[in-house]
């Protein structure tokens, strides 16, 4: 059981400000789960096409994670975080012209810009929290900060359900009548315009937070894991060196699979509820909120459990449970399947921060670059989501698409119990110590 402090008093203010970012970036992440059914309606998209919302979003993460790391490696965490917040705000404000013009492609561009900013935020915030204190408590510290992520996710889902969903759903006969009367295009346009207010408010809040972070002093040692008196050490990361750590490389793969499972499940949960419980969109959206609430509770419970249990083993047990729960959603679509997917969110809760903390452990000066590459693995959400949409399109069943999360959790079991064991030239204190691969 750990007796180390999670964070010191002198680091408390930057810890709070950066922890708040976990809440703020969760809102656009989970507003995507609302945008997918909304765009399916307003732009008349297939499930595969709607899945491209996540592709555009997570492509931003993939392409900008390394530039984010390079900016922070050359300057500092604060510069990277402010850059990310400004990009985030710019993307949110781009929703206004995208809605006025009424082009799906412009929304994809706006989402790409938002995600480019989030790549800076996630690369910086995860790494910053990880090194802001005792390495022994890095997983606990990161799980605590990440516990605020699902609160933001719930806020995003609630905002989207209440302010983006109109609750107006027409039958095929009504649509045909509106088309004949020439009023259907006006209806679709009104549905598109509903996205403007939430994103404008978010943009203003993000600009305010950028100002607050600019005004607060960050501890210098977080940007330099090597003591300043050690002239022989290089405090900048090296891309070639990070691949000397097998646990890090496997961590990238684990994050790819995990994010694909999480994003895919949440992206199509509303559609799954509509298909198998015949619920209207607003009621179906409530189940997404339930899932995110379960996820949030899981984060706090996981953080507490990690004081008594090894994080990797806890994650492995949670992965096994999710294989069972998602399997139920495939084999028993309906009320049981819906609640199985909702409950699976509880057991997803510890995975992202634990993979991140385990993956960058012992990387020393390579932490920022290593962290950026683990963030790049978020591209799993861009690949698995449209693939799940395609499976649903060709099988005419959202349940069969859930095989993708099952495969992902299988790899998570391997990483938790075997692949996450530290290996390579691990950085301890002021020097590297080579640890043999397990």
Account of the 3D structure:
The chain is mostly helical. It is built from 18 helices and two strands. The radius of gyration is 22 Å and the shape is globular.
Quick summary of this structure?
The chain is an all-alpha fold and 438 residues long. The chain contains 18 helices and 2 strands. Helix 1 runs antiparallel to helix 4.
- How many β-strand runs? 2
What's the CATH architecture? Up-down Bundle
Low-confidence stretches: 225-234
* CATH secondary-structure class: Mainly Alpha
CATH-defined fold name: Growth Hormone, Chain: A
Averaging pLDDT over every residue, what do you get?
A: 87
Strand content: under 5%
State the helix count.
18
Secondary-structure-based class equals mainly alpha
Rounded radius of gyration (Å): 22 Å
How many domains would you count in the coordinates? 1
What is the CATH homology-level superfamily? MFS general substrate transporter like domains
Distance between the termini: 24 Å
Q: How does the overall form come out from the CA principal axes?
A: globular
Spatial sequence of strands, sheet with the most strands: 1-2
Labels describing this entry:
438 residues, mainly alpha, Growth Hormone, Chain: A, 18 helices, 74% helix
List the helices and strands and how they pair.
Blueprint: H1 12-42, H2 47-74, H3 77-101, H4 104-131, H5 138-146, H6 149-164, H7 172-181, H8 184-193, H9 196-215, H10 239-242, H11 246-277, H12 281-305, H13 311-331, H14 335-348, H15 351-360, H16 367-376, H17 380-395, H18 403-419, E1 424-428, E2 431-435
Antiparallel strand pairs: 1-2
């Amino acid at each position: 059981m750990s007796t180390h402090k999670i964070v010191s008093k002198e680091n408390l203010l930057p810890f709070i400000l950066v922890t708040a970012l976990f809440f703020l970036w969760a809102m656009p992440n989970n507003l995507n789960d609302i945008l997918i059914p909304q765009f399916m309606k307003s732009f008349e998209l297939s499930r595969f096409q709607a899945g491209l919302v996540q592709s555009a979003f997570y492509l931003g993460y993939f392409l900008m994670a390394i530039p984010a790391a390079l900016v922070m490696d050359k300057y500092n965490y604060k510069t990277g975080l402010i850059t990310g917040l400004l990009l985030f705000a710019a993307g949110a404000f781009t929703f206004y012209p995208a809605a006025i013009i009424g082009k799906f492609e412009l929304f994809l561009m706006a989402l790409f810009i938002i995600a480019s900013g989030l790549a800076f935020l996630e690369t910086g915030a995860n790494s910053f929290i990880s090194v802001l204190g005792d390495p022994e408590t890095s997983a606990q510290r990161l799980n605590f900060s990440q516990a605020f992520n699902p609160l933001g996710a719930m806020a995003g889902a609630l905002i989207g359900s209440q302010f983006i969903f109109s609750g107006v759903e027409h039958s095929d006969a009504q649509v045909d009548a509106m088309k004949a009367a020439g009023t259907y295009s006006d209806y679709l346009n009104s549905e598109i315009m509903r996205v403007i207010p939430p994103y404008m408010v978010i943009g203003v809040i993000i600009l305010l937070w950028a100002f607050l972070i600019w005004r607060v002093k960050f501890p210098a040692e977080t940007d330099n894991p090597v003591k300043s008196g050690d002239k022989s050490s290089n405090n900048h990361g090296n891309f070639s060196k990070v691949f000397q750590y097998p646990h890090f490389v496997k961590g990238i793969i684990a994050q790819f699979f995990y994010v694909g499972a999480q994003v895919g499940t949440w992206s199509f949960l509303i559609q799954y509820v509509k298909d198998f419980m015949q619920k209207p969109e607003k009621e179906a959206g409530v189940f997404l909120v339930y899932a995110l609430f379960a996820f949030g509770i899981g984060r706090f419970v996981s953080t507490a459990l990690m004081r008594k249990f090894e994080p990797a083993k806890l994650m492995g047990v949670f992965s096994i449970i999710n294989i069972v729960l998602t399997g139920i959603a495939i084999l028993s679509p309906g009320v049981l399947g819906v609640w199985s997917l909702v409950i699976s969110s509880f057991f997803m809760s510890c995975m992202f921060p634990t993979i991140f903390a385990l993956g960058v452990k012992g990387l020393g000066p390579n932490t920022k670059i290593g962290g950026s590459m683990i963030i790049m693995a978020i591209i799993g959400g861009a690949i698995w989501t449209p693939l799940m949409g395609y499976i649903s399109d060709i099988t005419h069943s959202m349940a069969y698409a859930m095989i993708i999360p099952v495969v992902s959790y299988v790899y998570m079991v391997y990483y938790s119990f075997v692949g996450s064991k530290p290996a390579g030239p691990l950085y301890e204190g002021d020097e590297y110590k080579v640890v043999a691969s397990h």
